[in-house]
Structures are given as structure tokens and as C-alpha cells.
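Task 17 of the worksheet. Students: predict the tertiary structure of the chain below and write it out as C-alpha cells. Keep your answer in the requested format; marks are given for formatting as well as content.
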Amino acid sequence: MEHKHWKKGLLSGFFFSALIIAVAGCSTAQPADKTVEPAKQVATQETKVTQPKVPTMDEVPKGPEGEAIKLGYKLMNETNTVLKEHVGNQLSCSSCHGAAGTDSTSSLVGVTAVYPKYISRAGKVLTIEDRINGCFQRSMNGKPLAYNSDEMRAMVAYLTYISKGVPTGTKERPWVVVNDIPNPPTPNKENGEKLYKQACASCHGADGSGTGPNSGPALWGKNSFNIGAGMARLGKAAGYIQRNMPLGEMGGIKQGTLTEQQAADLAAYILSQERPDFGPKANDWPNGDAPKDVPYETNAKKAKN
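Model answer:
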């Protein structure tokens, strides 16, 4: 595959923040819905350990290694256009992992140091290539890359590059904030719909179809993540929304001030909409340890019952 135009604008997106997300909205052109109370200030989870310094794209070495890193960076930001045959929606890797994985929203810094790693959803140890392909098949509702392809090698090269300084074999990445509410409150979808119209619709569309993978990603419909993605779980979606949304202040709601109830309401409304299926989903958590907010039944759960 040729990539003739990757150099153009290479650095333009590297330092932007978690504008590119996959869960909630950022603003609305309509007046705030007066039936929805503005959120009160609540404590949010913050990173307790400073993220290791990430080398910039200006520091990329010359030669084949550097070219692979640059291609990997491009693939992170332009996944749905450069790898059309592998992406089944309108999302990029940076839609969830802001600033090509370097933003604290969902940091990938150090990720190559912790793999291979046991993943309970798979019920086995996965390599970093396995994990990348899991995202292609679930979050991007697409097809896996060949493990020996130039594109896979480039993505691994880039992730390894931003993970410099994190020793191989590291078990945990304490600078990564887990966007999750393990026991979310019982959601009110009607209130979630009001909040969505108030603070999310102008970026993500009234119909959830989005305005662009790196500005307002699709939250439901054919161009969004499928039911097998982690973000399709209520606790994960609510946690992401509470910590990151809305950007700035929208509709009278400031970023980081949504309560757990409001975040759960929003997540429930978004996840109640139609989205692509994931065929092999019943094979997930083969050891019967699926979290309670998984929105589908697994074979292991059926066997236990």
C-alpha cells in the first residue's frame, strides 16, 4: 500500500487534546433545555502518577524505523481513510485514544511494555498485535490487519516509540486513568436524552451520526463502534463521559462536573440506540467472568445457567 501524502500536516494533530472521543458531545447550537438542571461540581478521578515524557514527532529517527513510526502515527489519526478496507465505520484510533494515544483521556503510552498480557475477555494471553486487531474488529467494526503487514508493523513501531522509557515487562501503567464506573446508578434514559440534546448533539449529531472521526465521532448507527466494543458497556461509557465530557462548558454544563447519575443517564441513552452487531460476541469471557454490564449473553454464562 502506498502512502504518498502522509507527510503533509504530520504534526498538525499531535498536540491536540482529547477532542477526538467516542462517547459524548461537545456543544449545542440550541438553547439549553431549561428542564435539565446544570450539573453540580463533583470530584473527578485524576491521574495519580505523572505520565512518562513522550518523545515528539520531531524526534523521530531518520531511516526506515522513523518512516514506520510516522506511518503508524498517520494510521492512528486517519485510520478510517487510510485503511478503508479494515475499518467498517467512521472512527479512527484517535477517536478514543486522544492525540494519537498520548493524551491522558485513554493513554497508550507504555502499552507495548505491558504486552503480552492476559485479557479476561479473550480468556488468554494476547500480544500487542492481537490487541490492535481487537480494536479494528470491535471499536472500528472492521477487519483485522495481517500480522506481518507494513501497516501492523508501523502501528507497533509508533506505539513502541511513544512508550520509550517504560521498561519492557512492566505490569501496570499507573498514569492511566481508568474511565469506568464499576457500579453505575440505575439510569434514566429520558433524562439522558435531554442532556444529550443540551450538550452533545451539535458535535455528535441529533441522530448520533457524528460530524467527523476527529471532531465529533458517531456514537450510534452504522458508523459507530459495535456492541462488542468496551465502550458499549454502561460502566465504561459512563466513566468516560463523566471524566471527559463535555469539552469546556456546553449548555450550562462544565467539563468534569457531571454526576455519576447524569453520566449513567447519558450513557444509557446513547447505548440504547442501534449499533452494529459483533458476530463472535458469545465467545467473550470464556471463563465465565464477564462483567455485569456486558450487554449480551455469552456462551460461558449460558453454560453456568
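Marker's comment: The beta strands are 117-119, 124-126, 249-250, 253-254. The first helix runs from residue 64 to 77.
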